[in-house]
Amino acid sequence: MTMEYATPYRRASRIPADPGKPYFIEKGEGDRAHLFGDLITIYAGGEQSENTFNFFTVEGPKGNLIPAHLHPDTYEVFYVTAGAVRLFVEDTEGNQQEKLLTPGDFGFVPKNCPHAYRMERHHSQVVGVAAGPGGTFERFFENLGAPADQLGLPVEPVVPEPHKFATVPRQYDVRFLPDHEWRTR
Amino acid sequence: MTMEYATPYRRASRIPADPGKPYFIEKGEGDRAHLFGDLITIYAGGEQSENTFNFFTVEGPKGNLIPAHLHPDTYEVFYVTAGAVRLFVEDTEGNQQEKLLTPGDFGFVPKNCPHAYRMERHHSQVVGVAAGPGGTFERFFENLGAPADQLGLPVEPVVPEPHKFATVPRQYDVRFLPDHEWRTR
């Protein structure tokens, strides 16, 4: 039996509109969004846990560099389940680290710490939890990019219209750092 | 470079004592605990995110049935990364469901929903996030069971002393339901 629900985010979602209901979602069938070359799949939004946490995956092709950014009020987990992902992170005193994460490896980025990452193998996948006392931001991806019905990576990169960069990131606690430099190598 | 920290939980932990610091943990090197036949590995505790969420894995052998229980104030994610895990869950109206989850499949258990699970393949692994507005409970496992230094599953099952069942579960928002029955099959 496969249940689908109408929610504020999708006409047909596997995530129940009633946040008190238990549910299962098979691999890939969460709420999907495309942003640049990546597929983001949301399995639980903030609504499911009284805005405590969310749970999503990011899949992308090799070579996709996510630009440096930080979250003033959000803590973020990077847990790699496929491929290889290089995570760059800077603490609030300016000390920088980078590490190549392979399946089972974990990275933690506190609020206010600049970070970036690059998929270093095709078919890489990262599990993300991104939340803080102020809530969760899982709908960032579909608002800067676009919701997706189909399974799989975008056929063509979804490049946001320029005006979106002025409004959407701030709304979801994202600050891009266009002049940031990584000195780790 | 591998950093180890003295924390309230371990003499040598990969989780920084200072919660504002970014960090990496390689597969298996989080704070480990044994409970019955299972290995629990904590990669982030509540301290890391101002008590918003935690992140841990549970690995176990085939056949290990975790008894029915609920959490009055905690929401819980079951995300399978290896093997196969059968998740049983009941909503607050008494409707029961079960599903065999394989890698990439997701289950969500809201607060107050009775649930149980069984590893159905050796070397199964579940990623867990367990948190709610009242905090997180990742230290339940090592307090009912025992902290572990070594890697891998317990050589002998770690069976809690009976008196611990009277105090530890309530302290970590766990209510066991010894008379609960699953009618799903």
From TrEMBL, chains A, B:
Which InterPro entries does this entry report, sorted A to Z? Cupin_2, QDO-like, RmlC-like_jellyroll, RmlC_Cupin_sf
- Quote the CDD domains the UniProt record gives: cupin_QDO_N_C
* Domain Cupin type-2: start-end pairs: 61-119
Listed Gene3D superfamilies: Jelly Rolls
Entry superkingdom: Bacteria
Name the UniProt record assigns to this protein: Quercetin 2,3-dioxygenase
